[in-house]
Design brief:
By secondary structure, this protein is of the alpha+beta class. It has five domains: 76 residues, no CATH class; 128 residues, 2-Layer Sandwich (Beta-Lactamase); 69 residues, 3-Layer(aba) Sandwich (Profilin-like); 161 residues, Alpha-Beta Plaits (2-Layer Sandwich); 180 residues, TIM Barrel (Alpha-Beta Barrel), CATH 3.20.20. It contains 25 helices and 26 strands. The strands form four sheets. The chain has an eight-stranded mixed beta barrel, surrounded by four helices. Helix 24 links the parallel strand 25 and strand 26. Helix 1 runs antiparallel to helix 8, helix 1 packs parallel to helix 9 and helix 22 packs across helix 23. The termini are far apart.
Length: 749
């Protein structure tokens, strides 16, 4: 019995051991399945297209923004239903409800209103009245509303106070039969803040269909301020390529389509920062599992080693410029920090090189030709770098080098030799400029070193020189620029800008035929800055639009005042930046200003810099045609200073060109340039285009310009900007234009 019991016990023990063995095996199988699943997940995430992951993430953000916009429309629709339930249309009852709703949103709605079927408008700001010109933007927007659920307008300038606003509108059943329109006017900044949520801390922007930034975060502003136009072109190229990811310097640009107004959502992400939270979480989970199962599953170590090597390759590839094969800015920054850490007493110079290869070849031979030249330049720069030196491509035709520095003479010799070699790679003339910054022992901020070298490069580019060295004077200029930028936001409201007029004369009779309006910026110390001193700074920081519109309105006011006295018949030239011109509200706002002061387009001439046409896709040409339709003449300034001059005659219609002063000086000193000027005179005649000249011109220069067909001259010796037209003396119009101008005025009136 005892035996039997012992045997049974042993049998039970064997069964338990067998069961325990099976359980252990099962656990191992389960654990193995878990680790295989984790490995499969990591393999997918590691091998997946990071562009797809980034696009999917941003698409979700876009969906959230769309839902918030729909929420705004739904909120207005609920108010509409509330009004409809009150029965008959009564002004006092409806407006009382709208005023309560406006107050409940804490000023979010600037004003609310109802447009009745009889075109009467009922607003929270006054008595009922017919739709008038002050409601022109709202009216135009509402007329597009065809009975859909709701409408969100494009951004526009409010005629009441000049603020940037947007209109949200919904159908409103009145008496159960005839639809009316309920609308709310919302300040653009508050609307964008509401739909963006907590995204504003990221490198985010929202742009509309015409290239205007609806919103741009401070971080993205910093990352794109050096070349805003290149970024804008890349942004819309990404949209045209079905929202594919693009490289912008050492960042990855991701775009997504928003569900309203054709707006784009875009984000810049460091190119090396591709592992998002999901991937990092997967890596952590895998690491924990491997710690437990490392001894059981040997293949895990092998596969993780392969993944480590793959990650190393990814990091290495993230630091390479895909176009040229040399380092990009991410790889360059890492290499420079490594070199500095090993430098000991060795000094280094950081050199920024800019070339207009893309502009020259892109305009004439196409993208592929420009790409091949850039590849050749990159190979040459890489070959120039010795051990302990490095180079990279920044963006477009910009490159950067980090070279040993013994003395200034040595680095200048190396740059001149390098430049001579590079010029042989280009089958046609291109311009190259170099900026040098000699690094100090305390310099560890690569971005700051690049900016200082870039500032030196920009200075020599403006002067037409080859090489510039960053020195204390440039350092002081940077500090001064920072101060000016800080004051630029409030300069207009503080009345620091004043408009002056420079006479434009007939080159034969020297009679005053018009004037150019310039804005002088008065400083706290009493000094005055001219546009040439501050405008490049404002342009680089996208701050020109308010000033341009201020000058336009002041000119129209002065023209109206002088016209009453019968003194002004000529045109006034007004400079406009690309930023202002491509703003979607520029054309309607300028028309509104001219209408307000009773000024026709025949009294205005817009100056556009030749550089605005570089890489243009037709947008500028379309805007020029709209200006000319309004009677506004268009003149291209600084003609002869860029590489796109002849494109202007082939791609668009302009009324005049204004020669750069440098071009005029070269034409008087060099026979080839003189023949070029003569040919240009013949070309402009065939295209019915006038030639202007500017600058302090000598007698010989004036004679040459007369012979070549120049009709206007500005700022001859002794001319100074004046406060108003009266001080310019009487301006006489061209007899040939007087009747045309009168006819235009009659049509406008």
């Amino acid at each position: 019995m005892a035996k039997a019991n012992g045997g049974a016990a042993r049998g039970d023990s064997g069964k338990r051991n067998l069961l325990r063995g099976h359980t252990t095996t099962l656990c191992m199988i389960v654990l193995l399945a878990i680790i295989v699943g984790l490995m499969a997940r990591i393999a997918y995430l590691a091998n997946a297209d990071m562009g797809v992951l980034l696009r999917d993430g941003l698409a979700k953000e876009a969906q959230v923004m769309d839902e918030r916009v729909n929420g705004e429309i739904a909120r207005l629709d609920a108010i509409s239903e509330m009004l409809a339930e009150t029965g008959e249309f009564t002004y006092n009852g409806y407006i009382s409800i709208l005023q309560n709703q406006k107050a409940a949103r804490g000023g979010y709605y600037r004003r609310m209103g109802i447009i009745a079927p009889n075109d009467m408008i009922y607003t929270t700001e006054g008595e009922p009245r017919p739709l008038d010109e002050a409601d022109v933007q709202i009216q135009a927007t509402i007329r597009q509303h065809t009975g859909t659920y709701g409408l969100l307008s494009p951004a526009f300038i409010d005629a009441y106070d000049g603020a940037s606003v947007i209109v949200c509108a919904v159908n409103m059943p009145i008496g159960g039969r005839v639809p009316g329109i309920l609308y709310a006017v919302i300040e653009m900044d508050r609307f964008v803040s509401a739909i963006m949520g907590d995204m504003s801390s990221r490198s985010i922007c929202v742009a509309d269909q015409v290239g205007r930034f609806i919103y741009i975060s401070p971080t993205m502003t910093e990352r794109t301020e050096d070349n805003a136009d290149a970024f804008r072109r890349l942004l819309f190229q990404s949209a045209r390529d079905n929202y594919s990811t693009k490289l912008y310097g050492d960042y990855t640009l991701t775009t997504a389509q928003l569900g309203f107004n054709g707006w784009l959502l875009a984000e810049l992400t460091p190119a090396g920062d591709v592992w998002d939270g999901e991937i990092r979480a997967g890596v952590c989970a895998l690491a924990g599992a491997l710690a437990v199962l490392m001894t059981l599953i040997g293949m895990v170590s092998y596969r993780m080693l392969r993944r480590a090597r793959g990650s190393e390759n990814m990091v290495r590839e993230a630091g390479v410029d895909r176009l040229t094969g040399i380092s990009n800015m991410l790889g360059f920054a890492g290499a420079v920090r490594t070199i500095i850490s090993r430098a000991n007493a060795q000094k280094y110079a950081l050199i920024v090189m800019n070339t207009d290869v893309q502009e020259v070849f892109g305009a004439r031979y196409g993208y592929d030709a420009g790409r091949r030249i850039l590849e050749d330049i990159a190979r040459t720069l890489n070959a120039e770098c010795e051990s302990g030196e490095t180079c990279a491509r920044m963006d477009g035709g910009q490159f950067v080098l980090f070279m040993r520095f013994t003395d200034t003479a040595d680095v200048l010799l190396r740059i001149k030799a390098l430049n001579s070699h590079l010029m042989t790679l280009c089958p046609m003339r291109v311009r190259m400029h170099y900026g040098i910054y000699v690094a100090e022992e305390s310099d560890h901020d690569v971005g700051q070193m690049i900016e200082r070298a870039s500032e030196a490069m920009r200075r020599v580019a403006r002067k037409g020189d080859l090489v510039g060295l960053y020195d204390d004077a440039l350092h002081q200029k940077q500090l001064r620029d920072a101060t000016l930028l800080g004051r630029a936001q409030t300069a207009l409201t503080n009345n620091e800008f004043e408009v002056r007029y420079v006479p434009v004369r007939d080159i034969v009779t020297m009679e005053i035929r018009g004037a150019e309006a310039i804005a002088l910026w008065r400083q706290p110390d009493g000094s005055v800055l001219t546009p040439s001193e501050y405008m490049p700074l404002l342009t680089r920081n996208s701050m020109t639009r308010p000033l341009n519109m201020f000058v336009l309105e002041r000119v129209c006011a002065d023209l109206a005042s002088e016209a009453e006295a019968g003194r002004v018949n000529g045109r006034v030239l007004i400079g406009m930046s690309r930023e202002t011109l491509i703003d979607g509200m520029f054309i309607p706002r300028s028309r509104q200003i001219m209408k307000q002061y009773g000024i026709t387009g025949a009294r205005l001439e817009v100056l556009l810099s030749e550089s605005m046409f570089v890489g243009d896709d037709g947008l500028i040409a379309n805007l020029i045609e709209q200006l000319r339709t309004d009677g506004v003449r268009v003149c291209v300034s600084d003609f002869g200073s860029g590489a796109t001059s002849l494109r202007i005659f082939g791609d668009m219609t302009v009324d005049a060109i204004r020669l750069s002063h440098d071009f005029t000086e070269r034409a008087c000193a060099d026979e080839r340039d003189r023949r070029l000027l003569t040919s240009l005179g013949q070309l402009t005649t065939s295209f019915d285009t006038q030639i202007y000249a500017a600058g302090s011109l000598t007698h010989d220069q004036l004679e040459l310009l007369r012979k070549c067909g120049c009709t206007r001259v500005e700022r001859i010796h002794g001319d100074e900007p004046e406060n108003n037209f009266c001080e310019l003396s009487e301006i006489k119009a061209d007899p040939a234009e007087e009747k045309k101008n009168d006819d235009l005025f009659d049509d406008w009136a």
